[in-house]
Amino acid sequence: MHVADRPTIGIFGAGKVGTALARLLVGSGYDVVMAGSPRQTALALLVSVVAPGARVGTPDELVAQADVIIVAVPFGKAASVPWSEFGGRIVVDAMNYWPPVDGHIVEVDADERSTSEIMAARNPEARLVKSLNHVGYHEMEDDSMDAGSPLRRAMAVVGDDPDARAVLARIIDDLGFDPVDGGPLANGRALEPGHPAFGRELSADELRALVAPGVHVAA
Ligand SMILES: NC(=O)c1ccc[n+]([C@@H]2O[C@H](COP(=O)([O-])OP(=O)(O)OC[C@H]3O[C@@H](n4cnc5c(N)ncnc54)[C@H](OP(=O)(O)O)[C@@H]3O)[C@@H](O)[C@H]2O)c1
Description:
Helix content is 32%, strand content 15%. By secondary structure, the chain is of the alpha/beta class. It has an eight-stranded mixed beta sheet, with helices on both faces. It is globular, with a radius of gyration of 16 Å. The termini are far apart. Residues 12-18, 35-37, 39-40, 72-75, 77, 80-81, 94-96, 98, 133, 136-137 line the site of NADP nicotinamide-adenine-dinucleotide phosphate. NADP nicotinamide-adenine-dinucleotide phosphate binds at residues 12-18, 35-37, 39-40, 72-75, 77, 80-81, 94-96, 98, 133, 136-137.
């Protein structure tokens, strides 16, 4: 059941990550609306089975209804998401540049910015954070634990808007992970594939140390 003080969450991408997040969010009382790829003709049926309680909408409906927008599509398909329509909303970049799936994108390989800084440039007005990307989709549910559990795993949020980071921190806590405020978006490099925090089971203290500036040494 939707809990009144929770923001409505829109998710672009009803794949492995999008549906895992939808299940956890619905379970925590969030109103969730999902938009899939135009190729997913039976999306409402799929979502009713794999993420019951989540709603399906068009991209326009999602943008109109969501307070927080999660982008969980393949990185190479990011351009198909309507970034310019997001206005000043909180946008979560959950994507990873993953050449085995995305191929090598010459412009990205040559770009010194973190991939989320590249995404943020698609809509400078949006309050973009990078989060939810450094934990495997299967672990999101398997490793979700109640607050205070001694083995609770951490998840980081970085972004240039402190209020947006705080909103995400609450969502991360509700997902069952200890939130770590990693500071500005540029710190997100540490959360990317090939960098120390990616895919590792870390406590909040361990993760905080890795996302802190100055320790972004490639693994
Ligand atoms: N897998 C993980 O454990 C994991 C963990 C954290 C983050 N991530 C990142 O999260 C993103 C999604 O990963 P995934 O494993 O969930 O991929 P996935 O299972 O392939 O799901 C992505 C879904 O997004 C759809 N899509 C493509 N363009 C879209 C658009 N414009 N609007 C809405 N949906 C669209 C795809 O449809 P089509 O197939 O028709 O294109 C596909 O159904 C990737 O960037 C990945 O690197 C993955």
